[in-house]
Design goal:
The structure is a homodimer.
Chain A lengths: L11 H4 L1 H12 L15 E3 L6 E9 L10 H17 L3 E12 L5 H17 L3 E9 L4 E11 L15 E5 L5 H4 L1 H4 L4 H8 L4 E6 L4 H8 L4 E5 L12 H6 L6 E5 L5 H11 L5 E9 L21
Parallel strand pairs in A: 3-4
Antiparallel strand pairs in A: 2-5, 3-5, 6-9, 6-10, 7-9, 8-10
Chain lengths: 309, 309
C-alpha cells in the first residue's frame, strides 16, 4: 500500500495534529496505558524496573526498510520486532516503547490507521506497552523510530563479548532471502530462545543477525580470531545460495558462541527439548586469526549489508 | 553551517558506517559509557532504576527545527534540552539517552563532528549518559530523534492533570520570540525548578511550554474551565507583543497551576529564595468555562504552533 495520498482530505494534514493524536490513541487502544502511564503528558511514567534494564532503538524508513509491497501492518510489526530481536539477543524481556514518527503532510490516514492497529496487535502479543511518542513533519519522508525498553530476565545479560577461540558457533532458524521471502516483516523475534540461552552457562556471547553473518560475526569474534564456517552446514532458506545466507541480512536470527569443552551434545539435546520447532545449527567455530582450517568459508570474501553507500 | 557537502570525500558515505560509528564513540567520549553500558551491543544495559521512571522522545529535523543559521553544536543542545525540558516538567532528573540519526549520504562529517561534540558536552553538563543509538540513511534528510529516560526525584511526579478552577497560573522566564532571539537553542531547561515545584504541595499540575501558551494551556486546564490571562502581566521577551508571547512557541518554560487557597505569598517568597535569578510571573487563573472575567485575554483568539500544515 502506498503511504502518500493525492487527495488532501485523506491526508494527515487535513485531519490536523490534535485529531491525529486522538486517533492514534484510539488505534493503539489497550496497547497504550492511560495518562500519565501512556500518551498525553510531557513524559510517560513507568514503574521502577525490577532488574537491570535494556534499551535499544531502530527505525523503519519508507524506501529503505519498506516499500509499497509491504502492508502497513507488516511495517509496524517489522518496526517492533526488529527492536524485540535486539532484546532477545541479550536474553531480556520487553517492557515499554515510545514511537517517534516523521511524516509528510500527504501521508494517508488510512495507511497510518493500519500501521498503528498493526503495532497495537503486535505490542499486545509481545506484552509491550506503547507509552508515548512524537509526531514531526518532514517533506517526502515517512519514518518511524521505536525505542524499546526491556529488562534482564535472569542473573545474566548476554552480550557480544566473551566468545573464545575454539568456541562453536550456532545459529537459529534459516538464513538468507529475507527480503524476497517476506521474512523481513513476518519473522518472529527469538525472545524465548534468547532468555533460555542467557541461562545456559556454556553460551558465552550472543547477538542477533541483522546485516548478515559476513558482517555481524566480526562483532562476535574474540580478539585475534576469525569465524571458520562450514559452508555446507549453513541453514539456508529454500532457493538461497551461500552468498545469500551470509550476506543478505535481515535474518533476525540469534547467533551465539558455545564453549566447546562443555558437552555440546547435552546442550543441543536440552535445546531440542525446550524448542522442538526452532532449528538450531552448528555452523563452525572461532579459529585463531591466520589459522583458518582448509575448506572453511572465508567470510572476508563476502560483505554484509552496508548502511551508508 | 550547511549540513550537506558537495565533496564526496567530506561526506559520511566516503567515511563508511564502521568508521563513522568509531568516530561517534570518539566524539561522545566520556558522555558514552563502555559496552555493554553504552554503544556497541544489541542493547545498552542500564542499572535498575531507583524509583518511578520517565521517558520522552523529541526530534530535531533539518528545515523544520533548525537551519544553516544554527550551529551544529546548537542543534545538538536543542535536541537534548527539549527532551530535558519534558523531564523538568514532571519534576524528574535525567538518566540516559539513545539517539536515532537519519541522514543523507552527503551529510558532512565536519558537521556531524560538531554536532556530536556538542551533544557530549551538553550531556555531561546535565549528567545524561548517551548509551546507544542507530544510524539510518534517507535521501535529503537530516533528522535526529532522542529518547530520554529519567526518574522521579521525590514522592510525586507532577503531571498536566490536577489543576482546579480558581487555581492561579504561573510561568517561569519570559515568553515569545524564541526563534528570532536564538532562545530556541540557547535556553536552559528548568530542571532544578521542576524538581523543586514537584515537592511543593500547592502546585497541582505542570507542563513545559513548547507550542505556546495559546495551545499548551488547554492541556493544563481542568475540565469545563478556561485560562483567564491578564495580557498586561505576560512576561514578554524584549520586542515581543502579546501575540508572540502566547503563540510563538519553543519557550521551554514551565507553566503550572497553584492552589489559590494556599498562601500564594509564602509560595512566591520561597521561590525567590530558591531561585533568585529565575523570573516567576502570575499570569492569570483558571475560570469556569463561559465565565471569562471582563478584560481577560481570550486565548481562543490565538493559535499556538501547528505541527501538521
Amino acid at each position: 500500500m502506498h503511504p502518500f495520498t493525492k487527495h488532501r482530505r485523506e491526508s494527515v494534514a487535513a485531519l490536523g495534529e490534535e485529531k491525529l493524536i486522538a486517533a492514534i490513541r484510539r488505534w493503539l487502544g489497550a496497547a497504550s496505558p492511560r495518562t500519565p502511564f501512556g500518551i498525553g503528558d510531557d513524559c510517560a511514567v513507568l514503574a521502577p524496573s525490577r532488574g537491570r534494564q535494556l534499551i535499544t532503538v531502530d527505525p523503519v524508513i519508507y524506501g529503505r526498510h519498506f516499500d509499497d509491497a509491504v502492508p502497513p501492518r507488516g511495517v509496524a510489526e517489522k518496526l517492533l520486532k526488529r527492536n524485540l530481536s535486539d532484546i532477545a539477543a541479550m536474553g531480556g524481556r520487553p517492557v515499554a516503547a515510545v514511537l517517534a514518527l516523521t511524516l509528510d503532510a500527504r501521508t494517508s490516514v488510512a495507511w497510518l490507521e493500519k500501521f498503528y492497529c498493526g503495532l497495537a496487535a503486535c505490542a499486545r502479543k509481545f506484552d509491550v506497552a506503547i507509552v508515548g511518542g512524537d509526531i514531526a513533519q518532514a517533506n517526502g519522508v515517512l519514518a518511524a523510530n521505536l525505542t524499546l525498553l526491556g529488562e534482564a530476565t535472569g542473573p545474566r545479560v548476554l552480550t557480544r563479548t566473551g566468545a573464545k577461540i575454539g568456541d562453536a558457533i550456532y545459529v537459529t532458524g534459516v538464513l538468507g532471502g529475507s527480503r524476497a521471502s517476506g521474512h523481513h516483516f513476518r519473522f518472529t523475534p527469538r525472545l524465548a530462545e534468547g532468555r533460555w540461552l542467557a541461562r545456559r552457562k556454556e553460551v558465552r556471547a550472543m547477538m542477533d543477525l541483522s546485516d548478515g553473518l559476513a558482517k555481524d560475526l566480526f562483532a562476535l569474534a574474540p580478539p585475534r580470531a576469525v569465524a571458520a564456517l562450514d559452508a555446507a552446514a549453513l541453514p539456508r532458506r529454500t532457493g538461497v545460495g551461500v552468498r545469500g545466507a551470509v550476506a543478505d541480512g535481515e535474518d533476525y536470527e540469534l547467533v551465539f558462541a558455545v564453549a566447546r569443552r562443555s558437552a555440546e551434545d547435552a546442550f543441543t539435546r536440552a535445546w531440542h527439548r525446550a524448542f522442538p520447532r526452532t532449528r538450531l545449527t552448528r555452523i563452525g567455530h572461532f579459529a585463531a586469526a591466520g589459522r583458518l582450517p582448509p575448506g572453511a568459508l572465508n567470510l572476508g570474501d563476502y560483505r554484509g549489508y552496508e548502511h551508508l553507500r
